[in-house]
Amino acid sequence: MAGALRTYLVCITSGGAVLARLRLNSSWAPRNVDSVVSALPLRARTFEVPPGLVCVQLDRRLVPERPVTEAREGDVLAVTGLNYLAVAKTRLRLRYKATLIGRVEEGLERLVPSLNVVLEVCGGDPGQVR
Questions:
Q1: Low-confidence ranges of the chain (pLDDT < 70)
Q2: Which residues of the chain form beta strands (DSSP E)?
Q3: 8 φ/ψ angles, rounded to the nearest 5 degrees
Q4: Of 28, 94, 100, 126, which one's alpha carbon is 20 to 30 angstroms from that of 63?
Q5: Can you give the pLDDT at residue 117?
Q6: Which residues, including other chains, have CB under 8 Å from residue 127's CB and lie 6 or more apart?
Q7: CATH architecture of the domain with range 7-124
Q8: Distance between CA atoms of 128 and 67, rounded to whole angstroms?
């Protein structure tokens, strides 16, 4: 499935309810988006490192692609080296090497640390969703 779409809609659920939807854009960082999508579906626990960056651990290697040093509220990041998928809850300066891979489309306020969640692809480019 990875590599088939230019954008992916990733749903984050907890207890059967959709908490958030993330839009991942392959044109921004194709290797990292492919790595994240290939790890899905994923059951994980959210954590916050540093404050303002809600993360889940991936079992895939993420690589530097167009690194960024700052994140805006709603940015979705691949934190390379640590292999975290992260969402910025606020504007912040990053302490870790990270690559911007998408944006939160819905539910940013519901993403908090210490949640048991499931991440899965729930859509993509119109007409190309499997």
A1: 1-5, 125-130
A2: 7-14, 17-25, 42-45, 47-48, 53-57, 67-71, 75-79, 84-88, 92-106, 116-124
A3: -125, 140
A4: 126
A5: 97
A6: none
A7: Beta Barrel (2.40)
A8: 29
- Which residue type occupies 85? L
Tokens of 66: 């167009």
pLDDT of residue 50: 87
Q: Could you tell me the sign of the dihedral formed by the alpha carbons of 42, 125, 24, 59, in that order?
A: positive
The whole-angstrom separation of Cα 12 and Cα 48 is 16
pTM (2 d.p.): 0.90
Angstrom distance (rounded) from CA 18 to CA 41: 14
Domain ranges in the chain are 7-124
SS3 108: helix
| Per-residue model confidence as pLDDT tens digits over 90-102 | 999 999 999 999 9
* Pairwise CA distance, residues 75 & 89, whole Å: 8
